Amino acid sequence: MNVSNLLRVTTLGVILAISGGAYAKSTSTPQTHHCKLQDGSMDMKKTKKQCLSAKGTWAKDADATAAAPAPAAAAAAPATPAAPAPASK
Questions:
Q1: C-beta of residue 36 within 8 angstroms of C-beta of residue 57
Q2: What does the chain look like in DSSP terms, one character per residue?
Q3: What are the tens digits of pLDDT across the range 26-70?
Q4: What integer is the mean pLDDT of 2-12?
Q5: Cβ pair 56, 37 in contact under 8 A
Q6: Whose CA is closest to 54, among 38, 42, 41?
Q7: 33 half-sphere exposure, CB direction, 13 A CA radius
Q8: What pLDDT, in 10s, does the model give residues 8-29?
Q9: Could you give the CA distance from residue 51 to residue 41 in angstroms, rounded to a whole number?
Q10: Rounded to whole angstroms, how far apart are CA atoms 1 and 42?
């Protein structure tokens, strides 16, 4: 291996090591607000400033830790009695 190849391999290794930091997990807090436009759609890419200038509202997301209400369909469905077992002879 000559000097120019060694230099190329070293340079490539350094570039890969530096770019590996870009794939590290973020330690910041997750975003809890998003832009809700006038037509009701959500635009996840807009910042607060961009959202407000587009006449949207900066809406807080629904609380993920809140308990979901019990489904009404399960409570409204009548309970059917079980069929009797056939008598043995």
A1: yes
A2: --HHHHHHHHHHHHHHHHHGGGGSPP-SPPP-EEEE-TTS-EETT--HHHHHHTT-EEEEPPPTTSPPPPPHHHHHSPPPPPPPPPPP-
A3: 677 777 888 888 888 888 888 889 999 989 998 888 764 444 454
A4: 88
A5: yes
A6: 38
A7: 12
A8: 888 988 887 777 666 666 677 7
A9: 12
A10: 56
Give residues with Cβ within 8 angstroms of 54, minimum separation 6. 35, 37, 43, 46
**Rounded to an integer, what distance in angstroms lies between the CA atom of residue 77 and that of residue 58?**
39
β-strand partners of 57: 36
